[in-house]
Design a protein that fits this description.
The complex is a heterodimer of chains A (about 300) and B (about 300). By secondary structure, chain A is mainly alpha-helical. Chain A has helices at about 5, 10-20, 25-55, 75-80, 85-115, 120-130, 135-150, 155-160, 170-195, 200-210, 215-225, 225-245, 245-250, 260-270, 275-305; strands at about 55-60, 70. Chain A is built from 15 helices and 2 strands. Chain A starts with a helix and ends with a helix. Chain B is an all-alpha fold. The longest helix of chain B has about 30 residues, at about 85-115. The chains are: A mainly alpha (about 300), B mainly alpha (about 300). At the A-B interface, α1, α2, α3, α5 and α6 of A face α2, α5, α6, α7 and α8 of B.
Chain lengths: ~300, ~300
């Protein structure tokens, strides 16, 4: 927005301003950047790089650092061939992603479009729908347990069944996904609604004058204009699906039908047998996938920044 | 109803529906009905927890959950005592407050430099910060775990003797992870501050720090408030790092202690409901009291206010 004001003649004020900085100011400016950067680099980027490096080694995590042995891509080969939970986990993460996109994400967008109109009570509906967003996913898992429990859950009482919704490996992934979706829908609705509010009203007026119906206006005009938000939402959903952890950990620590990559990494580190190289290799796979989508995200928000 | 029939609404109020064909009542009713159904469904899980948290366990065991009656407040008393809630909330407070203050302070520093000066590294720096916010935390677990165990802390700072298992370690990692998002939002906000203000401040001889502290920060109060609300809920809700970095049950923040609660409460689901409601209460209070800040904080990042 305001960066527009600055864009022309960028180089002139830069040189002028930088020459003016007094030595003391220069120290202050440096500290204002370096101290926060130390946090981000020291506690996020260096560990991330270390994970990648460790993935090519074998190490039990307890011994000193000189016990680390370089083993090439052996960890990756092992994961793909002799580590039974890996492929189910990949499959579950993909199901997670597809479900979130086709279910809660589309529903959230649909609700945002509906609520963007001047519907009576729109504020109340919005509040109700995004209320679960403030709850932690761990707590969401707890709250849904009251519906899912085999003996005392509401679902079984109503359906007259005896299904252990969180325990049965045939259904527990779906049970967890529904609970996640409860929270995810409101989040997407909120993001999309904010985007819709930013759409220039004259666009819709022009479309209406042309005799375009509401549905076709949305698909022909609003959706293309919302491209940055659409991309951000896709990135958010992918990252959320990849990072999915809390809910599964609270149910059964990611076992028995609920294997997911994030939980496998965690149990390889904090569990009884700590296999550092193994866990790191899976962590690296997570990093690789996320870096693709983070790049997309950065390109979207930074581009917006410059224009 | 009056909205749909009476008075021509001003074009600003209803941009979606400019004077086009006359409105039909049918679709509106259908829309309302759909929204009501969805809203009730969305309220239900939490409402169910609230209702059952007030019911006597032996009553619901005998009559089933679809019955009515057996209301009591005792579950809350029991949950509070047996679940160690006092300590849990205190731990959450000890972690959340310093983390949020530190995140906002550090993020606003970097954001100020990014917005105030045109350095060549600005874009790269912002990218490095923002990307860090999106990395999967599990991917950093191994090095962080190892690093934290290596760093010794004196006894008065942590009884575990190292960063691992201390409040400090948890605060630091929360700060590191949230910095990117806050810096991004704040620097966008600070760019709306007109340059002329700084120029006149410079003529008055104000140092960079004074410009930041006395000019920019007060102007950013709305953004800081929104981020403070959002970050408080996020850090309070943080589950993963607390679960893996804190081993001592007594030091767990409330969200991560949920895992232990289930064992403590065994199969008494009414007690479990009461526990859930207690954990949800602080964030729900924040949500209803400061809804505007919460929503604007969440959407600032994606749309630039």
């Amino acid at each position: 927005m305001t960066s527009k004001l600055r864009a022309p003649g960028r180089s002139i004020p830069r040189t002028r301003r930088q020459r003016k900085l007094a030595p003391r100011d220069r120290v202050v400016v440096t500290a204002m950047v370096v101290i926060p950067a130390l946090f981000v680099i020291g506690l996020v980027w260096l560990p991330a790089i270390s994970s990648v490096l460790l993935s090519f080694t074998s190490w039990n995590g307890i011994g000193s650092l000189d016990k680390i042995k370089f083993v090439g891509v052996q960890n990756y080969v092992d994961i793909a061939t002799i580590y039974p939970p890996f492929w189910p986990a990949v499959q579950h993460n993909i199901i997670w992603l597809v479900f979130l996109i086709l279910g809660p994400t589309l529903l959230g967008i649909f609700l945002a479009v509906l609520l963007d109109k001047e519907v009576r009570g729109t504020r109340i509906y919005q509040t109700v729908l995004y209320m679960p967003v403030v709850l932690s996913l761990a707590l969401v898992g707890f709250i849904w347990q009251l519906l899912y429990s085999r003996d005392q859950g509401l679902l079984n009482a109503v359906l007259h069944t005896q299904i252990d919704w969180y325990g049965d490996p045939n259904v527990n992934l779906w049970a967890v996904l529904v609970a996640t979706g409860w929270r995810h829908t409101g989040y997407i609705m909120l993001l999309y609604l904010a985007g819709l509010k930013g759409v220039d009203p004259s666009l819709r007026e022009a479309a209406a004058i042309d005799g375009s119906g509401e549905v076709s206006t949305f698909f022909r005009i609003i959706l293309p204009v919302m491209r940055p938000i659409n991309l951000i939402i896709i990135v958010v959903v992918v990252i959320e699906s990849l990072r999915a952890f809390d809910l599964v950990w609270i149910v059964n620590q990611g076992r028995n039908g609920l294997e997911i990559i994030a939980a496998l990494v965690t149990s390889n580190v904090v569990g009884e047998a700590s296999r550092i190289g193994f866990g790191s290799a899976m962590a690296t796979i997570m990093l690789l996938i996320s870096s693709v989508f983070i790049t997309i995200y950065l390109r979207v928000v930074m581009k917006e920044d410059k224009s | 109803m009056s909205m749909t029939t009476v008075a021509p609404p001003s074009p600003r109020a209803t941009p979606a529906k400019p004077a086009g064909p006359p409105r039909r009542r049918g679709p509106r009713m259908l829309l309302q009905a759909f929204l009501i159904v969805v809203s009730v469904a969305w309220l239900f899980p939490l409402a169910w927890a609230v209702i059952n948290s007030f019911r006597n366990y032996s009553y619901t065991t005998q009559h089933g959950y679809l019955s009515f009656g057996g209301f009591t407040f005792q579950n809350y008393v029991n949950a509070w005592e047996r679940g160690n809630f006092g300590q849990g909330f205190l731990n959450s407070l000890i972690i959340t407050v310093p983390a949020v203050v530190l995140v906002l302070l550090l993020a606003s520093c970097t954001a100020f430099v990014l917005a105030r000066f045109n350095y060549a590294f600005n874009l790269t720096l912002l990218g490095v910060f923002l990307a860090a916010n999106l990395l999967p935390p599990q991917a950093l677990l191994i090095p962080i775990f190892r690093l934290y165990r290596q760093i010794p802390l004196p006894e008065w700072m942590s009884d575990s003797g190292s960063l691992l298992g201390s409040y400090w370690g948890l605060i630091l990692i929360n700060v590191a992870f949230q910095l990117g998002f806050c810096t991004f939002v704040l620097s966008n906000y600070m760019k709306t501050v007109p340059k002329e203000i700084y120029e006149s401040a410079e003529i008055d001889g104000a140092s960079v720090w004074r410009q930041y502290w006395q000019l920019t920060l007060p102007l950013c109060r709305p953004a800081l408030a929104a981020l403070a609300v959002l970050q408080t809920t996020w850090v309070y809700n943080e589950f993963f790092w607390a679960t893996v970095l804190i081993q001592d049950f007594k030091k767990l923040p409330i969200t991560s202690s949920l895992n232990n609660l289930r064992g403590q409460f065994f199969v008494d689901y009414n007690l479990l409901s009461a526990g859930s409601v207690l954990v949800a209460l602080p964030v729900l209070v924040v949500f209803f009291a400061l809804q505007k800040q919460f929503v604007s904080g969440l959407t600032l990042g994606s749309t630039k206010g």
